[in-house]
Every structure is written in C-alpha cells, then in structure tokens.
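Course assignment 3, question 2. Fill in each field.
Student: A.L.
Task: Predict the tertiary structure for the chain below.
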Amino acid sequence: MNQRLTRRNLLKLGLGAAAGAAGANLLIGSRGALSPVASAQPTAITPRYFLAGTDGWISLPGQGSDQFHPDALAPQGKTTYVFGFADVTSMLSAGIPSITASFKNRAQICAPLMYFDEGGQYVIRLTNLGLQQRPDLTDAHTVHWHGFRNALPMFDGEPSSSIAVPMGRTFDYAYRPRDAGTYMYHCHFEDTEHVHMGMTGPVFVRPLQNGTSKTYAGRPYTKFAYNDGDGSTGYDREYVIFLSEVWNESHWDDAHIQLPDWTDYKADFFLMNGRVYPDTLLANGAVAGRSDLDTQPYSSLVQCNAGERVLLRFINLGFTKAAMTLSGTRLSVVGMDAVLLRGRTGADGSYSTNTIPIGPGESVDAIFQAPTYAPSASGYNTYPLYNRSMGGASNNGLGGLGGQLTEVRVFNGTQPAQDGPNDLL
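Answer field:
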C-alpha cells in the first residue's frame, strides 16, 4: 500500500539518505551532474561539539486551569514535553547504542551553548536518537546556523537543499566562521514545530581581534565582541540571554499524538536560557533539591564587579517580540544580527538605551558598565534584567513574576575572573 506523501515524509526523503555519504568529495561534472571524484583523504577534524537530537521533559512551575499543564504523561517532577538537543560531546568515542541508552528522552532546553573563534576550522557532529514518547514520528533533524553568512549549502541545515539526518544516523557539519557576532541555531526540519518544541540554542563567534590589547576609555581590554579596531567593544565578562517560549497546548498535543493549529498560537511561558523566574537565578548545572532542572542547565544570573564592562548577547528564538530592559544602568548596543554597528565610512552607529526591542530570529549585542558598588548587607547590588512586554513577564497566567526575569548582581571586586560565558567552565 502506498504511503501518503506528506510534507514531513517528503522532507525525510529529501537529502536525508545522503547523510551516510557525509564528507564525500563532490564536483559538478561536465554535464552538470553532481558526481564523486577521487581525491586525497582530508585531515580529520575532531568535532568541537557533539549533539544528539531527541525528545524529553522539562519542569515549568504552576498548576494550569486545563489539561495542558502539567501534562498527565509527564514523569515525576516534570510538566512539559519537548524536542531538543542533548550535549553528548563527552561521548565522542562511544557507539550510538551507548549514547542512545544514556541520552534518549533527555533533551536539553535551551540547547547546548556553542562558541567558536573566527577563522578556525570546526566540526559539529549530529546524531538522531529518535523520539521515545512518539515512536510513530521518524523525523529527521538538522543543525541550521541562523544568520550565518558563509555556510556551504551541504552544511546549511535547510533540509530541502542540504542534509537531513535520519534516525540512527550521524552527520558532521563543517564550518569556517568568518564573521564575528551572535547567532542562533535550530533544527530546520518541520521548523515551526521543531523550533517551538525546543530544538534551538545559542552560538557565537569571537573575533580575530581577541587576544590583542586595546585601550578604551582609559582601560585595556583583550576580549571583544567584534573586530572594532579601537577597543570600543571590549568587555570583561559575557553572558548569553536566550529567549524562547512555550505554548502549553502544542507541547501537550505532540505528547498525545495530536496536531496543534499554529494559527491559535498563544505563549503561556516565556523562557530565559530554558528557565523561568525565579529558576533563572539558580546556579548552572545540578542544583541541590531541584533534580527537576536536570535538563535545564543554564542560569541567567549576571554577576560582575563594579566598574567592569559586561557583554550581553541577547537572542530571541520565540515567536513574539521582546523588550529587554536593564533597570538602573544604561546599555550600549554595539551589534545586531552579528553585524557591528558601524557605517561604511566607519561612523559609530552604536546607541545607548535601557530597553532593547528584539524581534523573533534577531540577536543584539549590548555592553553595560557595572555601576559603582554601594555597601549592602547581601554583599552585592541588584539590578533587574527583564522583558517588559506584557506577556514576557507572565507565568502561565498564574500571577507572580515568572517569565523572562533575572538579576544583574554587582559586587565590590569579590567576583573571580570568568571561566567561560555565563560563568560556565
């Protein structure tokens, strides 16, 4: 019996079968056909990151007024079904059966934070573990680097013109980043569904200028957001603020083999690095007494010393516009969508504000200088960082603050040097 050719099945057929031929050397033949040619074996590059596409469950607070939240199928301590990527970089030498046993149905929200140096050669490996909750869906997965301007078509992750990775298969994406700035990545297979279900994450490129010393406003810097030439994007610390959303009904529908009507979209939760307030203030990784956050590992808490310059990399991969506000100090917007705000003549296009509008699919790089420390019993001064749009501060309509809210905490020189973005090692 012939299977009905749906868009989902068509995309699976697309170029998904080509995943097994990843890394082949191809050229356009004399008759215009794409055909393999013999060549020397290229030097292998160890993948910088290894991602596994799968499903899972996350924890969002509150008791809803209908059947959608929390989901009755959710395991103890969880509320919401998701698709996502798991970080399996530590298992590069392991076989797929071992990775499947350890990570299937353990998708991470938000997806693993990735960063690279401009001009380097990198590989991201993707394996597709399948969906435990929905074995009837045999969806392929991809990694699409949203806004990346020099991806080869094979590695772009748009499944109708590049590679889609079927269940049980693995593919290596190759990149040589040439444009510094803040990007995002997501699965582009059934993209509306897969993006909203959680297959999204942050990625950024550090500029060639990093490591050189440039003085700006009387202070030397060696870390920069862009190749600015004058040190104006220099910073002491950096934090990624990744904005996404959850529409309870669509997540419930996917768990219960239903089809959501996307024209009814209404976000119930507004997430910041995969959590909502007050969980946004908790530490990275495992949190004592909160085993329910095991697949939501990223804090949004910004910590710095008085006088330091802090780079905030804002990314919006929700479906609604955000208005990110830092109370009590000003933000200098230096880049948008991985482009330094400089005119063709070199004129400075940066601007100062305390509220930044960020539309879906956009990124903004903003720097603030931490204010002078005022003596405090807590040992730090607090400045709210939040989405001031009406929806962005909600918590499933249950009252309370919730939503996209965190804090900037300014210390009097007691914070050690940052080990990695968002204080990650």
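Instructor remarks: The chain has four helices and 24 strands. Residues 1-5, 13-34 have pLDDT under 50 and may be disordered.
Grade: pending
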